[in-house]
Design goal:
Blueprint (H helix, E strand, L loop, with lengths): L2 E6 L19 E6 L14 H7 L7 E4 L6 E4 L7 E3 L4 E5 L21 H10 L20 H11 L11 E3 L4 E5 L7 H4 L3 H4 L4 H7 L13 E7 L3 E6 L17 H10 L9 E6 L3 H9 L5 E2 L7 H4 L7 H5 L2 E6 L3 E3 L15 H12 L3 H6 L7 E2 L24 H10 L10 E3 L11 E5 L8 E3 L15
Parallel strand pairs: 2-11
Antiparallel strand pairs: 1-12, 1-13, 3-4, 5-6, 6-8, 7-8, 9-10, 10-11, 14-18, 15-18, 16-17
């Protein structure tokens, strides 16, 4: 689905005004969430908005090159990409020396360097029954020896973080290994997913105990400065953040990405000194806050105001005059409907049931659905693989998106779905032998939703709350 992103350039472009040396504390980026956060402990959260936040406070081993298409994995805190051996079951990773956590009272005044043991400990936290991690399912049954550690923790009602596990161990100060029970071709992507592999310091967890979700301390570009739950969050640039500079590898024919790289390449991260995040659940106040220059960025234009902001899919003239720019990016959020195959009317694999389902699909006008109720904030999906994902073919066209009421009616006629009693409803095909007919559930033409896809695209590693990439 195509989503509009509006960025207000108050004076000059925010990114273009960033100094090359360090984050400018006078540069404040203001943004709004439409749903409240739940906390800041990677092991305990699974919601989108909290995940967006922690990805900028903590560091997973890998990250993404957001300008590449398809988006590709790159080292984040690692010296290089993981060494994968033994038929895809053994991952060996070396952490870059010289990466430090943000200062915190838990470290008692000492600078705390990121080590391999931090990643081992953080992954073990997913297996702690007290954490009740919603992300455990990704690793349970995957890592050699950790199911036994989990069973012991459940039996004793206590997690032994020092218990040895063959499949999860630090080899030295900066090297750790993960051994899987069987190959998992998604595992590399878990290493870029903060909720399961971001590094949390053991001292911080032990210092704050059950309130650790209120005190996030990581090695990422930002740290929490102020928090009023479900209302406002303020993040400041982490002064201990390592030297990282913006880079990317866009395709030669991607003019937009090439322009971004030309403008930002070599800028030190993070590019702003402070980020203010407000929780504004209602669409109208969120839209008005943007119009009143109270927000610098609106990730998803509320549907109620899509035609005002982007009439005929073009940025409104009054917004252009104010220096607002728009970016529309299709991505990987898929919306679809499905048939209950055990349903007595639409289910089953008899030819007439297949014909009924096909007619229902032919009777759904996805184009009108996108244009009117979805206010042009969507594109029709021709496959489960969306734009930007590996394997996406922009030239592939599926007949599943065809809208043809005449063909739908002809198909129903051909297989005996007729209006036998002239009441305006088609009846099920007559059962052989008894001459009876049962009323169907659909009028002519039948209606049924089909696939649509939508998503957002992140733009940089420092602070781009992402929907799903």
């Amino acid at each position: 689905m195509k989503l509009a992103r509006l960025i207000a350039f108050l004076g000059a472009a925010l990114a273009a005004a960033v100094p090359a040396v360090a984050a400018d504390p006078t540069r404040v980026f203001r943004y709004a969430f439409e749903v409240a956060e739940t906390g800041f402990d990677p092991a305990e959260i699974s919601d989108l908005y909290s995940s967006n936040v922690i990805a900028n406070i903590f560091d997973p081993p890998l990250s993404y090159d957001y300008l590449a298409r398809p988006i590709k994995l790159i080292p984040n805190t690692l010296v290089s990409m993981p060494e994968v051996t033994e038929n895809g079951t053994l991952y060996t990773m070396r952490v870059k020396p010289g990466i430090f956590f943000a200062d915190d009272a838990a470290f008692k005044g000492a600078r705390r360097e990121l080590t391999a043991e931090d990643y081992v400990y953080s992954i073990k936290r997913l297996f702690d029954p007290r954490r009740k991690s919603p992300n455990l399912y990704l690793f349970e049954g995957q890592i050699v020896g950790m199911d036994e550690v989990l069973a012991a923790a459940r039996k004793n009602n206590r997690m032994d973080y020092d218990a040895a596990a063959e499949g999860l161990r630090a080899l030295d100060r900066f090297t750790f290994q993960i051994r899987l029970k069987q190959p998992n071709y998604n595992f590399l992507y878990y290493l870029a997913y903060c909720n399961v592999t971001c590094a949390v310091a053991r001292e911080v967890v032990e210092h704050y105990g059950d309130r650790v979700a209120e005190h996030p301390v990581g090695t990422g570009p930002f740290r929490l400065e102020f928090w009023k739950r479900s209302s406002k969050m303020v993040f400041e640039a982490n002064p201990n953040y390592r030297e990282e500079y913006y880079d990317g590898t866009p395709a030669e024919d991607d003019a937009t990405a090439q322009a971004i790289l030309a403008r930002l390449k070599g800028k030190r991260l993070p590019m702003v000194g402070k980020v203010e995040v407000y929780v504004i659940e209602e669409p109208q106040p969120r839209w008005l806050a943007f119009l009143n220059n109270e927000l610098d960025f609106l990730e998803r234009v509320p549907n109620d105001f899509a035609n005002v902001a982007t009439p005929n899919n073009q940025l409104a003239a009054n917004l252009r005059k104010r220096g607002v720019t728009m970016e529309r990016t299709p991505g990987m959020e898929l919306t679809y409907s499905y048939f209950g195959m055990k349903d007595p009317v639409v289910g089953g694999y008899e030819p007439e049931k297949v014909a009924l389902r096909r007619a229902i699909v032919l009777g759904q006008d996805v184009g009108t659905e996108i244009r009117i109720p979805r206010k042009n904030q969507a594109i029709a999906a021709h496959s489960p693989i969306g734009p930007g994902a590996l394997g996406y073919d922009p030239h592939f066209r599926s007949t599943a998106t065809e809208y043809n009421p005449a063909k739908a009616k002809a198909l129903l006629d051909m297989y005996g779905y007729l209006d036998c009693d002239a009441d305006g409803w088609r009846d099920l095909p007559r059962a052989s032998g008894n001459g009876s007919a049962s009323p169907s559930r659909w009028s002519t033409p039948p209606h049924r939703a089909r696939s649509r896809s939508r998503s957002t695209r992140t733009g940089r590693r420092t602070w781009t709350p992402s929907a799903s990439t």
